[in-house]
Amino acid sequence: MRSLLVGFHRQCRAAKNILNYRITIRSQHQQAANFVLTEPIQFSRDFLFRQLFDPVSSTYTYLLGDVTKREAILIDPVIEHAERDANMINELGLCLKYAVNTHMHADHITGTGKLKILLPSCRSMISRASGAEADILLNPQDNIEFGRHQLKVLPTPGHTEGCVTYVCHEQGIAFTGDTLLIRGCGRTDFQGGSSATLYKSVHSVIFNFPLNYRLYPAHDYTGRTVTTVGEEKVYNPRLSKSLDEFIHIMENLNLPYPKMIDKAVPANKICGLFELDEQKNM
Ligand SMILES: [Fe+2]
């Protein structure tokens, strides 16, 4: 009788533990959901936003504009799509003020040089720290103005030494280049990259934005277009980890040598014009 009672108590305790465990897991999921499912910030009525795509390098190009003043900028254009982008800008009746890069890319050639030829109003921009040439070399905290809108330049090195994030606080959006990708990040084994530096950039700059800021990366390889600070803080499989874990992950990616790097980096040092000169001489 006594052993039956002991067994019954043990079973009760086990059932209670399972119940408590389920309640804990459910409340953890609920907390995570509250953290990541944030209220979206709406675009202003006079703010134009278009997300364009290059399927070869999985690069996103962003067209931003002031609808009233009709001034626009392009972020991370790709040379093969310069005509597409110029046509869209002309069709919308916009004037392209700047073609801007988040960093000196190694996987595609920038369209900035070609866009300057197609749309002579356009001037190229990249960070001074990138080591590339451009009409305007950006310094930390500079503002890129188009109409009444502006992007602030925030250094976020780590993928390359010259990587920056462009943030528009009014619209609650940031363009993170390869520093932060959706559920990932750029590699850190070339172009002066450093895992510890990238981790610090993300945690001290990008993760300091409000949770509902939308983040637009330079690439996505699985069709996702946008994320938020809240989502990445919880679900980024690399950057939600400790610094030591992150460095260990990055050191063990075993990625192949970048296919385009030997062609793209020299071209991107001069706004992609290297490629144009080659084409002209053919
Ligand atoms: Fe990159």
UniProtKB/TrEMBL annotation:
<dbReference type="GO" id="GO:0050313">
    <property type="term" value="F:sulfur dioxygenase activity"/>
</dbReference>
<dbReference type="InterPro" id="IPR044528">
    <property type="entry name" value="POD-like_MBL-fold"/>
</dbReference>
<dbReference type="InterPro" id="IPR001279">
    <property type="entry name" value="Metallo-B-lactamas"/>
</dbReference>
<dbReference type="GO" id="GO:0031123">
    <property type="term" value="P:RNA 3'-end processing"/>
</dbReference>
<keyword id="KW-0479">Metal-binding</keyword>
<feature type="domain" description="Metallo-beta-lactamase">
    <location>
        <begin position="58"/>
        <end position="219"/>
    </location>
</feature>
<dbReference type="GO" id="GO:0070813">
    <property type="term" value="P:hydrogen sulfide metabolic process"/>
</dbReference>
<dbReference type="InterPro" id="IPR051682">
    <property type="entry name" value="Mito_Persulfide_Diox"/>
</dbReference>
<dbReference type="InterPro" id="IPR036866">
    <property type="entry name" value="RibonucZ/Hydroxyglut_hydro"/>
</dbReference>
<dbReference type="GO" id="GO:0046872">
    <property type="term" value="F:metal ion binding"/>
</dbReference>
<keyword id="KW-0223">Dioxygenase</keyword>
<dbReference type="Pfam" id="PF00753">
    <property type="entry name" value="Lactamase_B"/>
</dbReference>
<dbReference type="GO" id="GO:0006749">
    <property type="term" value="P:glutathione metabolic process"/>
</dbReference>
<protein>
    <submittedName>
        <fullName>Persulfide dioxygenase ETHE1, mitochondrial</fullName>
    </submittedName>
</protein>
<dbReference type="GO" id="GO:0005739">
    <property type="term" value="C:mitochondrion"/>
</dbReference>
<keyword id="KW-0560">Oxidoreductase</keyword>
